[in-house]
Specification:
The chain has 214 residues and is mainly α. Helices cover 66% and strands 0% of the residues. The longest helix has 25 residues. The protein is elongated, with a radius of gyration of 18 Å.
């Protein structure tokens, strides 16, 4: 099943599990499995992740992994969904932050959410929203970045009265793709993020959107 079919309209749903955790202990166990997967991906890349590796690093049995996930792809889907949810919630907070008094400040706040995710979320740099997974694309051609663009455009339009149209959406999608690429480049060789690439990313994102929203 494509990643984007696993995510609801806010991109906040979880990937389908064999057993949904209903108790705090089960939720903690699932979190530990995903944390172990994220740590392994940070060190080895998502391509080399195995369910056995997840079990070993989480201090769990392989049966525990299979209790929740049918295979390694399901683990990756769940982690990608968690990463995406982290970013989406952060973007929503940034847009709603009353300290951001213009749409430009809200956009830069959203940019910094991405930067913060690269710095704080293990495995995020490799997997992010899951677009790198070798899965059949969604029927509408949408990607994780496409949906993030929708959330940004609609949130900023609702708060600041900016344009919300197909052309504005295309501008936001371009901005999100540039943001994603340049932030990834900033962290490719630096754990803190190369400031030159980050500054360039901020400037380019604002430039792209200013042509449509100014």
């Amino acid at each position: 099943m494509p990643l984007m079919e696993l995510i609801d309209g806010k991109l906040g749903a979880s990937a389908p599990l064999r057993n949904e955790p209903v108790q705090a202990r089960s939720t903690a166990r699932l979190t530990a499995l995903l944390d172990a997967a994220a740590a392994a991906i940070d060190e080895l890349g998502y391509e080399r992740l195995t369910t056995a590796m997840v079990a070993e690093r989480a201090g769990a049995s392989i049966g525990t992994v299979y209790r929740y996930f049918p295979d390694r792809i399901a683990v990756l889907q769940a982690l990608a969904t968690r990463n995406l949810d982290y970013v989406v919630r952060g973007i929503e907070r940034a847009i709603g932050d009353r300290r951001a008094t213009t749409w430009r400040e809200a956009v830069l706040g959203s940019f910094d959410v991405y930067v913060g995710a690269f710095r704080s979320q293990r495995g995020f740099a490799s997997l992010r929203g899951g677009d790198v997974l070798d899965l059949r694309p969604a029927s509408d051609g949408a990607t994780a970045n496409s949906h993030i663009a929708d959330i940004m455009m609609n949130g900023i339009a609702a708060r600041f009265g900016t344009e919300a149209s197909p052309r504005a959406r295309f501008a936001f999608e371009n901005a999100v793709e540039v943001q994603d690429a340049l932030i990834a480049r900033a962290f490719a060789r630096s754990a803190k993020g190369d400031p030159a690439f980050l500054e360039s990313g901020r400037a380019l994102v604002l430039s792209i959107l200013s042509e449509r929203l100014a």
